[in-house]
Amino acid sequence: MTEFTIIGGNVAGLSAAFHLHELGHEVHVYERDIWNKPCGGGFTIDFHQYLQEKWHVYLEEAHQGRDVIVGLPSGKHVRLKSPFVVTTRKELQKKLIQKAKELGIEITLTGKRLSFKEVIELCTPQTIIATGYSKITFQALNQKWNPRDVAHIVRFDGIVSNAKYPDDHIVIIDSKVLGYGWFFVGDGRHVNVGIGGETKSLPRGFSWKQYFSEFLGMLESKYEVYIHDDLEIKGWKLPLPYDKWKYSISNVQNGIEFIGVGDALGLAHPLLGAGIEPAWLSGKCLAIAVDTKGQIDVNKYQKILRKNIEVTSCRKIDIILAKLLRKPIPKKNALTYYTLKFLKEKMLTEMLKKPWYMLHET
After folding, report:
1. Suppose 322 and one of 70, 223, 234, 270 were both cysteines; which one would form an S-S bond, judging by CB atoms 3.0 to 4.6 Å apart?
2. Does residue 332 sit within a domain?
3. Is residue 235 part of a domain?
């Protein structure tokens, strides 16, 4: 049995904790707090069922919606049966932490952001970094992201009283921000609405707050989503590199080997920014790479992780489409629309054929 420290108790860190504990190792997770991470909160129905059947994690707030509408600011869109559910990131984290404690995994909620000096004092010889786009990630993994590999996200998540909308999830691709916006419906009056894109390419003086307001106006005029409350928005940054392997997967400092999982490695889908299932997969891959001496074989971990990410959430077609979306090419919105129109069923079938959270190659 080996002792492992995990810094960061959201999806990636908790996945690593679950899978390492399942192998009989002792795990201690440190997390600031249970909080509502400023992201979309969507994942596939299959992953939802897996959490229930495999780990007995039940998400009462998860909502499937009727359809997913993928469209453009002009109102042109394609419609497909919703392949995913949406919950709050707070509920997901809360239920995973609750289950981790039931399994006997030690969880410490620090109530504050730890300094790197404080992290060093907590570390075991191999320490797992699950802190996403953060100062700890930069320091522990010596991670220096290219600005063009980082997306800026602004979103609101909560209850709206003065609103009217259909029971459909909506995703709007917009070349103006080289990204997309979304409107995810929840139970009751709960909604999750946000926008994200490549900050580096935006014009001088661009305001995400103003664009968020414009996005709500576009949803009303083109997609029958009426929200008249003053929504309190929050910002977030997310690394979305095409080439995920040019960045550090591990780093040795002060005799400690730091090993990344999830967003700390930029594993989210390069086009959609969806990161929950790739984060879970990374924790599984890390646990499989533990050798007979109880040490994480980092080379094996990277090999397994790369094979799986490249056949699930980062296929060649995903990279090509992500590159096209981020380039300032003429008639991009129209090109995007017709690509979605003709490939929507194939893209959905391929995604469901090899679920992002499951191990497919070793």
Report:
1. 270
2. no
3. no
Residue 153: inside a domain, yes or no? no
Amino acid identity of residue 289, one-letter, is A
Does residue 259 lie in a domain region? yes
Q: How many domains would you assign to the chain? A: 1
Partners of 182 in beta bridges: 171, 194
Residue type, 83: P
> What CATH number is attached to the domain comprising 269?
3.50.50.60
Which amino acid, 54? K
Cβ contacts of 283 within 8 Å, gap of 6 or more: 11, 12, 13, 14, 15, 16, 17, 18, 19, 261, 262
> pLDDT tens, 177-222?
888 899 999 988 899 999 998 888 788 889 999 999 999 999 999 9
Q: Smallest Cα–Cα separation from 339: which of 353, 314, 312, 318?
A: 318
Could you give the CA distance from residue 154 to residue 202 in angstroms, rounded to a whole number? 15
**Chain centre to alpha carbon of residue 206:** 25
* Distance from C-alpha of 29 to C-alpha of 5, rounded to nearest angstrom: 6
d(CA 337, CA 241) in angstroms, rounded, equals: 24
